[in-house]
Amino acid sequence: MIPHKLRLCLLFILFLQITGFAQKKPPSGGRLAVVVDERLAALRATPQFSGRLVRRLSRGRLVAVRSVKTSPDGITFLLVNVTRRTHGWIQRDAVASPSRSGDDRRLFALIQRSTGFDRLARARILLDHFPRSPLRPEVLLLLGDTAEALAEKLSLDAARRLKNDLGDASEFSYYLNYTGLDRYNRQRVSFVFDKTTNRFHYDGAAWRELIRVFPRSSAASEARKRLDLLYSQVRIK
User: Fold this and answer.
1) Each residue of 158-190: pLDDT tens digit?
2) Which of 51, 52, 110, 224 would give a disulfide with 46, using CB separation of 3.0 to 4.6 Å?
3) Which domains, ranges and CATH numbers included, belong to the chain?
4) 212 and 145 Cβ atoms separated by less than 8 Å
């Protein structure tokens, strides 16, 4: 018999694994790559569109590339490991690899074509997985600009949702606990709140990193302008 406390511990670990809160190790067995375009991220049993669907992979998922094959219709598929037990074929356009020359530029082009939260999330992928990319200054600037643009919509959405749903706590605390902030928090993007206007603003973290790490870049001079405007609009501690 398994002791009661040990059984509860095992059940909790299983819960973490099922819900995705457990830390996942990168898969082994090949060159590391990351899913950047979830629209194309169908994992198939064979390297062709008619192949049996194994599963859909989410944006940001790490895979290990084992081999490459081109289908008769000219589409390149990669055989990848997702976990120790799960593998299959995925369209190469769905992933980018830090070790493959030019993949950072391909991802940057995808970021530029993206809009809204998708642009922000893909910018985060490049910053997290391509530490040596010369495109990092432009991506940091773009991430900050995108977050500030999204702050306007976030402010309007929060005001609409909270208009008739405030309790006894301070009004600003409902804004700072607004559920719409959650997915940004998972991307490590934070906002500050101006109580006088009930408006969110991006906190400027990417712009400050840009100035600190790439002070002589043209993007850094633009970042300084963004921060000057931000500081004139709301007090940042």
Assistant:
1) 999 887 777 778 888 999 999 999 999 999 999
2) 51
3) 24-96 (2.30.30.170), 103-233 (no CATH)
4) no
